[in-house]
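Aim 2 progress. For Iron-sulfur cluster transfer protein NUBPL isoform X1, the working sequence is reproduced below.
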Amino acid sequence: MGVWLRLLVSGGVSLRGCGGACVPLGGSRLLICRRQFSGAESEALKQRRSQIMSRGLPKQKPIEGVKQVIVVASGKGGVGKSTTAVNLALALAANDSSKAVGLLDVDVYGPSIPKMMNLKGNPELSQSNLMRPLLNYGIACMSMGFLVEETTPLVWRGLMVMSAIEKLLRQVDWGQLDYLVVDMPPGTGDVQLSVSQNIPISGAVIVSTPQDIALMDAHKGAEMFRKVHVPVLGLVQNMSVFQCPKCKHKTHIFGADGARRLARTLDLDILGDIPLHLNIREASDTGQPIVFSQPESDEAKAYLRIATEVVRRLPPPPESFPTCLGNLPGR
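Predicted structure tokens for this construct:
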């Protein structure tokens, strides 16, 4: 295990903002007793359980220096979520050069941001013992991929993953950001719940292909965010159509307008359509995202339009936001 990984999971980088104490379970055994309760007893038990659960939930605390957090999520892997997150971050910066944008990769098991943003190396530590993001194309980036070797698998249980997520949220010196785009892992599990409960999120973008099997999980993802009171800004229909580069014939490989039907079901908006195009894949694989490398292409313009729609649906940012100690005058 490398030095950065040991720091991350052992607490060498201090854990801040934890909402409660950690209790080792060790080899203790739990004895579960079943009992029939009367109506009044059952109601009292429910109230007691709710009180205990509410004490155990972490209190939401803004990320220092960050005005607004936008999470990019999908119910299923392989639908282009990370590609969308990267190009959305670049499009937000391209649409308004006065805005500072960051990109946080919380997909611990399969981080994609380092390769897509052409970044390697370990983050440096600030004087206040916070990790400094790596920078490329004007976007500040942080990912688990910076802390482990590219080919090293993370064979971690839930508690270690949650510890790592907590540190990625709290132990990074972002400076001053207008937008932080968070690339979430696929699914609706511990990581999504932890991020949603720990920090205030301005809005969620759900990415899906038009395929029915992907839409089923996208539906679950949207409902999960609603349950944890995160506004869903809308859906991105990725890989919506393929156009033959020779004859220009269009084929809906994954089906036509499936995400639009889901959006109507959920009473959500479609933020935009992204075609299935070779240029997007090649640009991502070479670490030169299409919004940066081919800004005048139709594909890049699709991401730029989506970024405009995202900003239009965001709530107003707070007038002031927490400032990282490292950026205060005199430090």
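The longest helix spans residues 39-56. This observation will guide construct design in the next reporting period.
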